Every structure is written in C-alpha cells, then in structure tokens.
UniProtKB/TrEMBL annotation:
The protein, known as: Bifunctional diguanylate cyclase/phosphodiesterase
Residues of the full protein shown: 356 to 612 of 625
Boundaries of every EAL domain copy: 1-257
Coiled-coil region(s): none
UniProt organism field: Kineococcus mangrovi
Amino acid sequence: RDLERHLARALPEHRLRLHHQPITDATGAVRAVEALLRWEHPTRGLLPAGEFIDLAEHSGMVVAFGRWVAHEACAQLARWRARCGAGAPDTVYVNVSARELADPDLGRSLEAAAHRHGLTPADLGVEVLEESFTDPMVLPGLHDLQRRGHPLSIDDFGTGYSSLARLVDLPVRTVKVDKAIVRGITAAPGGDSRSRALLDAVLTVAAGLDVEVVAEGVESAAQAEVLLTAGCHHLQGFHCGRPVPADELEHRLGVAV
Ligand code: G
Ligand code: G
Ligand code: NA
C-alpha cells in the first residue's frame, strides 16, 4: 500500500519527529514529559501517531521507530537538563507497543540510549497500554525493563482488562487513568458515580502499593481541581499543555542559573 511504502522511507529520509506533552504536578510545574511520535508525510503534512502507528506495528517498522524515539527522547532530556537546570523534567516517557515488548533486545537498547546521552534508565520511562500489561507474552519484557530501572507507566488505565492485581507482581511507578474516565468523573452535573468509584478504587490501591496516579485528558481548570482534590498526583491534558516540539516546551521550563 501507498502509505506503507511512504512510511518505510520515513526513517532514512529523516521524516520522524517527536512532540512532547507535559505531565504536571499540583503547582503546574512540569515533572515529566510524554514523547509522542509524529511523521512528516511528503504530501499530507505532520501526522500524529494515531494515523500510522498500527501500520508501523503490523509491518514491524515500529521496532526501528522505537529505537529512534528512545534515542531522540534521551538526547532531548539531556539538552533540557543542560539548558533548563532544575526546570527540566525528571523523566521522559516513551510509548512501547506489544510488538516492541516482545523484542528481547528492547531493554538493552533503551538502557543503551539512556547511557549514550549521559542518562540512566531511571530517566527514561516506558508507557505500556493496559492491554499489554495483562498479556503473558510481554511479561518477561516488562520485568526486564523494571530490573534495569526504567520507570513503568500503565497507559489508558481503566479501559482494558482489570489489572489491579498485576500491580502486585510487577512494580510500576505510575498508572495513567484514561481520558474517558476523567471525562466521566467531571461530566456535568455532579459527574458519573461509576467513573468516580473506579477512580477512588484505583487511588486506594495505588496508595497502598506506592504507585503514582496521573489523570489523562485534563482539558479544563475545573477538571484539574476535581482530580487533584480526589488525590491524583499528576495531570496531563490540553489544559496542562498540548504535545509540542521540544523548543516550544523549553520556553516553559525556565533557564538554568
Ligand atoms: O499522538 P497521538 O494521539 O496520535 O497518539 C496516539 C497513540 O499512539 C498514543 O496513545 C500512543 O500510545 C501511541 N504512540 C505515540 N507515540 C508512539 C511511539 O513512539 N511508539 C509507539 N509504539 N506508540 C506511540
Ligand atoms: O494514549 P496516549 O495517552 O498515549 O495518547 C496520547 C494522545 O492523547 C496524544 O496524542 C494527545 O494528542 C492526546 N491528548 C492529550 N491530551 C489530551 C486531552 O486533554 N484531550 C484529548 N481529547 N486528547 C488528548
Ligand atoms: Na501513552
């Protein structure tokens, strides 16, 4: 197919880009960023990951893309540390698909990417979809990342199979409560009590296991307030900052003194 033929040239023709979306704390400070892949398509302009990541996954290109993403994300965090000092994010998170987790070389390549830029695995977090987290095929890969010291984050939490129990077997740093649940909780009037019950359950289990909770898809100050009051530690969403190129985010991080 046409799209696949073009996509195969994205890497050699330097058409991949990274955008960074801030993950903020209660004060609005940027604590972490999520690196999101973009493709500069020859005629259609800049495409978000959602438009080509499935194709990259099915064709296997996602493995090579993931290496590029890790390298680029680490290079960027190292630059922010040099330029923004204490304003730099603590961690950059990259997304990793099931196909990448099945690659026995994933852990080694992520750790090498961190070291190449003077970072450690603690600086390079990995986001995994909830559905991958419950897939026995990818468990060895997840354990390998965890042993190397990469912070793990479970994405879109609350949309897949219940995996609260898995949190006991496999320590993760963070769960990211899915946008749909966030939208439910803050829907007028008074919010949806089932979404709220799920959030409260996640927060209770997370507190007991020392797991951090990030609310995703936060689009308004009112939502931010409800979620922080409920006990979410960090927020992500258009209200906190859209995914943007690195230099755009840099304005917000401050300058090293
Ligand atoms: O940015 P966008 O809304 O298009 O992202 C859609 C989905 O694509 C996100 O949920 C994210 O998990 C996934 N994604 C974004 N960047 C990457 C990447 O570098 N690698 C992989 N495997 N998935 C990504
Ligand atoms: O599944 P994942 O969290 O990786 O998806 C990230 C994607 O979600 C990004 O591409 C981003 O564009 C989108 N996104 C981020 N914040 C918001 C938001 O506040 N609202 C909506 N609708 N989408 C968001
Ligand atoms: Na993600």
